[in-house]
Design brief:
It contains 14 helices and five strands. It is an alpha/beta fold. Mean pLDDT is 86; it is low at 1-8.
Length: 295
């Protein structure tokens, strides 16, 4: 299982699925979930257990290859797949007790270029029997369907609000009201809730959280001005949609009447629709303007 702290922060259903994978690992696993949702923590924990290693020794293990974007590039190019192929050709001693010799860990696999994904596909179609691929991405739709079809997919889900609130209160010695505010601002995302409690202004989702709240409660002219800014920042737009989805899901669960539930369901549906349109490269301004009418 995951570490004690993580077990407090991950939904029980997520832990059960991870335990099932560890008991009978397939050749490739994809962990999906929002930024700051714990994907990297989960990948490292699973990797350590598959190889019977301490997590802090993974970086220096000859049995592990970490695939990350090059320093001067935002994405992961086909060169990374060439490095994977070289790694797979090496003679690696000392398999773990379950026969696994190698792990290829691709955090933020959504950054793989199209060429890199197509090149990686061959390894996933004909995987070496002693190798496991561990990937993470915000959403499975960011990868080619042919890639997804060859992966075991586990979606990280937020822990129950009650458990997260108690964790924040105990960990940061804050009041119930402060913890409640942090959870509402973050949409229940664990890492973002913690960042808000720590007042970490440079956290990558803090700006998205502020943007989402403005879209939900700001004046019409403020929303229009904000949409103008979002059309120039696709990353912030995607982050904001994620936060809106988390907020809507959480509010839908706690709705006290049918009218509230209908409102949040409409917002949730609209954000997913906007996300699909953006993935299809539809007009960003038109997509965001349409979304605004439902907020």
């Amino acid at each position: 299982m995951i570490s004690n702290q993580s077990s407090l922060l991950f939904n029980r259903s997520t832990e059960n699925k991870i335990a099932q994978f560890l008991s009978n690992p397939s050749h490739a696993l994809l962990i999906t979930g929002p930024d700051s949702g714990g994907k990297t923590t989960v990948l490292n924990s699973i990797a350590a257990k598959l190889l019977d290693l301490a997590e802090d020794s993974l970086k220096n293990s000859p049995n592990v290859l970490f695939v990350v974007p090059e320093e001067d590039k935002k994405g992961i190019s086909i060169d990374a797949v060439h490095k994977i192929n070289h790694f797979l050709s090496l003679a690696i001693p000392n398999p773990s007790k379950n026969g696994i010799k190698r792990l290829v860990i691709i955090d933020d696999a959504n950054k793989l270029s199209l060429d890199a994904q197509n090149a990686l596909l061959k390894n996933l179609e004909e995987p070496p029997k002693d190798t496991v691929f561990l990937l993470s991405a915000r959403n499975h739709i960011e990868l080619l369907p042919t890639i997804i079809s060859r992966l075991t997919v586990i979606k990280l889900t937020n822990p129950p609000k009650k458990e997260l609130k108690q964790f924040l209160i105990n960990e940061f010695k804050i009041s119930d009201a402060t913890a409640e505010k942090a959870i509402n601002m973050s949409g229940g995302i664990v890492g973002l809730s913690i960042a808000i409690c720590l007042n970490t202004a440079d956290h990558n989702l803090i700006k998205a959280s502020e943007t989402a709240r403005t879209l939900l409660s700001g004046k019409r002219y403020t929303k229009v001005a904000l949409i103008n800014k979002l059309t120039k920042n696709l990353d912030l737009t995607k982050d904001t949609l994620y936060i809106l989805q988390q907020m809507a899901s959480q509010s839908l669960e706690s709705s006290k009447n049918e009218a509230q539930a209908k409102k949040w369901q409409d917002i949730l549906t609209s954000t997913y629709k906007a996300e699909r349109q953006i993935d299809k490269n539809n007009n960003l301004r038109l997509t965001l303007t349409s979304l605004m009418l439902h907020l």
